[in-house]
Every structure is written in structure tokens, then in C-alpha cells.
């Protein structure tokens, strides 16, 4: 991965910039190296870079003031929630101000009558659900990092999770945002209504990875808890058989609340880690959750058992009680930390493929693993074809990171080749930035780039993410020139 | 005034490039069923894209369909029906309200105008179903966005922007949509003789229940006649639930428990009635302007009271109010909408009214600037339906 060298002019102005930031925030400007080290990256751990400065605003007016300042000074800005991005979405730059939104962590309003929650960006995903569970509601998107990840980050990354198969990802559960634009002005997009009044700008903000604005408030849809929830587990002696089972469940017209796959290596790791009761020796298991009214769930479980056994499942069981159900899911949610004990480093991929291609892709990934001489395991959201192969490597061994990245890139290329996409829920960030041409032509990317320019003509928000090259905003006469220089003259072109 | 028709995407590109050279904008027309919707414009040229028709791929086991943008919706729905599947946003047929043929619209028109019907409540709006598309932008380039899988966050989600854009951002040529399994059965239940506030409260209770209603509408006495619901007293609350036989029975029983003390009847032709609700059938055969108010559900009753329309009805558990009021009510209605945190759209009115009264609610200055920049990002010379949404957009 190549990064743009920092702008020496900005680095030279650091003292003045810090003074300017302190003029805006009486506390919450982090500038000393030890403090900045806490903000030097996210969950894409292979890359670290401390920012020029980190600021921790408490109010939306402070966010606006910070953006106004950065814009006037021509300094890049990196927004950050809890720093759980797996694609480097919150990776700083040496010449950028990092705006950490963790202090804006108030739930502004719980509006049960309109079935929504209004929250500041630093509220955690889990806290939304917690706030409404006693009233029988929940918030559907549930990324594995939900204990830490924030609403603002969820909007930026359009986060998914286990339960998005039936209930959609963040964008489908997001009613509105108040967005601070790069120049500091704020706009309300959407609200508590079901239809936008003009262009659906909210739709493009969700998943824009911090490139279009900073979310200072979000309005989220909450759902009534289903009366019955049942989890079943099917065990297979052969991975492609599990893939076939997934495809056949969907083809039968059943949309489970969740349908998750784990392979043998992952089952063993998780069993060692927290003993959820998975069958050791299985080559793969599926965890499937059904919800709805009793008769609906009973029907679906019976149908799925038939499909699973026909696909080759040798064991099929339903969680006997709530405790067992919770244990089965705890195992799934612990998959990443459990794998973390086995390997010094992991690269978590995130491609999505058409479900019918699962058997083929699973088989080809095993071949790739052998060719690259790197182990991997598979744990993924099978129901929507969203793969999360975890590549195991050791960053201390010369060349392994590069090999792991190469292996990962080949998996993603495979996903695109069979009609899928590079990322299902983790975002492009820096991780998959240079792979974008696998999926999009220059013309496709230029169109997206022009939307970026419409929001951020000076390219100051989260630069270097998502797009393999920053085309300057010239086509519309938007080119932002500071001191006679075009933005990022040093940026490498790929 | 010129009328161009293109046969395929290649000709479309040529047409856009020619329009670019001549700086001559055009109105994009599919089958023309919704030309009277949106801000009135004075665009001299029309571009007939109806030849961009045909289903390209239907993978029923992947729950995905790809079609050329001007494929008739009826063709898509007929094909999905064969496999017990449906479009989740439940596109409504607005043609007859605008004096056009019934059941004649295209998929591209449905997406571009956000014709979301009653089941939108459960499955989401058009924007939640468009997975990807191909289009020609204002530079005369063919580009694609999104993909063919449901879970995809690769790059900006431009598909959302195209939905409801009224053709102002480009000419769609191909669209890929997710589809849903259609439940084997449905039941539409009715509570009769229920007042406005009471009716909305009741709908919200069902909306907040876990029985996954796919239609929650309130039809007051004044609008009941075209729906042939029998004697509705002050008004009727309608609720549709779906499922296989046994689950459906269970849902109906659960609704009876939830609404105990209310007489809950089942109507025979619920599917047809809900389709009519989506199509705004209360206004069929009547002249006069129509407004649609999009408001938070809990504000529906107070908005209705303030609006004081002689004919009105509500869909989406109160989230969508159809009001028979003249275009001149704009100021009052927009104040009502804004106070509730919603907005008003002048849905049907004469071209003169739609030229003088903003059709879509005006945006704040910063928002309007952003909207114009986004328009320019797709269509810098304003060739596509300029002014159809806002002045200059």
C-alpha cells in the first residue's frame, strides 16, 4: 500500500494550527505524541500513523467550527468514531486533524410513537438497542464490534451485521442525519419521515466512509422484537455442502433473520476460546436464526431441516432454550478474537458473492490458500453471500504481509469475477482502495468522484480513502487552489 | 420542439452528446404515465426511451432481477408472480390519477418517481431495492453503479440518489433490483367506524407490533366510497398481514388480542383495495389538486386536523397523507408539514400551478446548494429534465 507523503507546508505550520484548535476547544485538543498514539489507527492494524493533532469536540457547533477552521487553513480532516473500522476508514495522516466524536455520546430522543431513536454520533451501536429493549424494540444492524462501534461510524461505513439478512444494513434503518459539511455548514437530511423531499442525499451519505461530511446526529429506525426467535445449527462434513444448503434455503423463499457459516478451523478456535458447544470434527456449521410468530418459525425450521439434510447435514439441532441460543451466538460473535489467539496477525476480507456461487468460491479459496502458503479460515454471513475469510499471517516474518494482501486481493478478485463485490460491510477505506478498478471502470469511478466534489470540493475530508486516485475537482470548475497549489500534488497515482 | 426516440443505449449516448453540443436539454419520457408529476418545465425537446425495454436476467433463487429501465412494470411483475416473488416497494400505479392509462408505467419511472405503495411500510422504499444500475450521465458517458448482490458497500451508493430523482441526474438504461418471496396468503382486516385520532393510534399499535403488517391505511368517511368498503362510519382502519395459512391465522389471532374490544372484520378483496390505496384511488374521477404530506406517524392526526381537507386518506400508518386541497394551500400545508418535521409535495395540479408553486418542499440554503452541486456532478449542463424537481434542478 502506498500513501501520499504528508504536506510539508502543513507540518511546518503545526504550532499555529494547534493554537487555532485550542482557540476553538478549551479542552480536548490532543497534541503530545503519547496521546496521539491512541488515535494512530483503527482495526486494520497493519497500518499506523499518528495524526497532526486530535480534537475531541462535545457539540455539533464545535464540529462545525473545527471544520470551518480546517477548511480555511486547507488541512485534511479524518473523522473517527470508535476506530473499529476494518478497512482503515479512520486511519490518520501525518498532516491531518483527526476529529474524534466519542464525546458526543448522548441519546437525544427516544421516540417510541414514531419508532425511532435520535442519537449523537458517538453513541455506541449497542447502546441504541439497550435504550429501547425494555419497551420491546431493538435496532437491527448489529456489527460484531457493536459493543464499541458508534452510530456515526455505522452511518459512515454503512455497517451490517448478523441480522441484516432480513432487516437490512444501516442505510435501510437510517431515517435521517444532521450532517456537517466540510466548510462547517450543517444540513438536515431526512428526519422521521418515510420519504425524502428532494434528492435522496441521505442515501449517498450512508456508506460514504467519511468523505462527504461528518454526521453530528442520526435518526435510527427501531423494530419491534419478534415474538419467537429460534436458532438452529446444522453441521456438515464438507464445506461446499454447507454452501449448497444456504443457496437452497434462500431459493426456497425463506429469509432467515440470520444465517452464518463457520469452518472447521474457526469452530475449533471458538470451542477452545469459549465452548459454545459446536460439533468438533465438522468441516463447517451453519447457524440459522428464524423469527416471527410461532407457526412461521416452526414451519421454517422444519423446511430448513429438510433442506439441510438433503444438502448433506449430518447433525441438525435447535437450541433448547434461550441460554443455549445465546451461547451459540456468543461463539459466532467471538470468532474474531478466538482466531486472534491462533495467529499473530489476521487480515479479514469482506467480499460478497451471489449465494449460488458459494460452493464454487469456497473450493477455489482453498486452492488459493495452498498456492500462497498461508492459512485462512472462513466465517461469514452466508445468507447474503458476504464472505469473511480470515487470512492468518505474521507481520514480523519478512514478506508475509505483502503475501497476505496478495492472497486477499485474489479472493476479492474471485468475488468480483463471479458477479459479486469487493466489500459487503467493512468498507473500502485504504484496504481495498487500489482494488476498486476490479469492479469499476474509470468512468464509473469518475462519476463517484464528482459526487465527492459536490460535497467536498477541496478534497479535505478523509482524503486517500475509497478512491484509487483523487481526481481534482476541475470538471465543474471546483478546483480548490490554496496558495497557488493544487491539492495533494504529491499524491501517488495508481 | 423536437421529439427524439432512441433504439438502444448506443443511440442514447449519441443523443446525449448531440444535446450536449447543442446545449439543448430534453424531457426523458418512458411510457409517459407520470409526465404531469413534478415541477412544470418548458423543455422543448423530448427523448423517448421506451425502446430500452426487456428483462435481461432473472435469478429467482438469488432474489435478483435485472431489466432495461423502460421495461413495463407489468411485465416484471408478471414474471415475478410466476415464482411467487414481488417487488418489495410495492410500486403503485399512478397513471390514472394523471389521466393516463392504467398499468402502463415502466420500472425506471417507478424508481425515478418513488411510487412506493402500501407494502413499503414493511419492505422499504424504491431506494432500498435498487441494487445497481447503468445510466448515461450528462457528459454522454455510460457508467454503472452498485452491484448485483444485496450486501454491498463498495464505493458510493449512487443507486439511492437515482431513486426519486425524477430523471434529473441521468438516463437510466438498466436496473438491478432485489426481490422478495411473496407470502402464500394475505389477510386484510378492517376496523370500522373509528375516528381519525383513534384510527391512527390503532394503526400505530399494529405498526409497533411484531406481526409485520404490509399495509396500514386509514380511510375516513369522506374518501371511503371508491374503495367499496361498505359502511365505514367515521372511517376505517385497514391492516394487511401475510404468511402461510397457519402463521397467518396466528397473526390474525394476535391482532385480535392486540386490539381487543374492536370488531375486526376481514375484507375479501384486500389486495385490490391496497393497490387502490397506493394508486390514490380516492381521487379517481375527481378534478382538483392533490397534495401528499410525508410526516412522522404520530403527527398524522394533528396534521390532518390542521389541513382540514374535504377529501383525504392516509397510508403507511399515517406516514403518508393524501390531501385534496388546491395548490394555493401551499403556504399553510408547508407550515403544517414543517411543524411536524415532515414535508409536503404538490402531487397533482395544473401545469400553471406546478410552475408557480414549488412542487417539492424548498430546502435550506445550504441544502439547496448541495442539491445543485449534486445535480451538476451528474449533469453539469442541465440536460436532463432541468427544473423538474426544483428551479435549476
Protein architecture, described:
The complex is a heterodimer of chains A (494) and B (393). Chain A has three domains: 1-225 and 443-494, 2-Layer Sandwich (Uridine Diphospho-n-acetylenolpyruvylglucosamine Reductase, domain 3), CATH 3.30.465.10; 228-337, Alpha-Beta Plaits; 343-436, Alpha-Beta Plaits. With 494 residues, chain A is α+β, with helices and mostly antiparallel strands. Chain A is 35% helix and 18% strand. Chain A has helices at residues 8-12, 14-24, 33-37, 60-73, 125-133, 151-157, 164-167, 201-205, 239-251, 264-274, 294-311, 322-333, 335-340, 358-372, 400-417, 436-439, 442-455; strands spanning 29-30, 53-55, 77-80, 97-100, 107-111, 116-119, 137-138, 174-180, 186-190, 214-221, 223-224, 228-236, 258-263, 284-292, 313-318, 345-348, 376-381, 389-393. The model of chain A is unreliable at 475-494 (pLDDT under 50). Chain B has helices at residues 9-22, 73-82, 107-113, 120-123, 158-162, 196-207, 245-258, 270-278, 300-307, 330-339, 351-356, 365-378, and strands at 3-5, 26-29, 45-48, 55-59, 64-68, 85-86, 130-136, 142-146, 171-178, 180-181, 185-191, 215-220, 235-243, 264-267, 290-294, 312-315, 320-323, 343-348. Chain B contains twelve helices and 18 strands. The longest helix of chain B has 14 residues, at 9-22. Chains A and B meet through strand 9, helix 8, helix 9, helix 11 and helix 17 of A and strand 8, helix 5, strand 10, helix 7 and helix 12 of B.
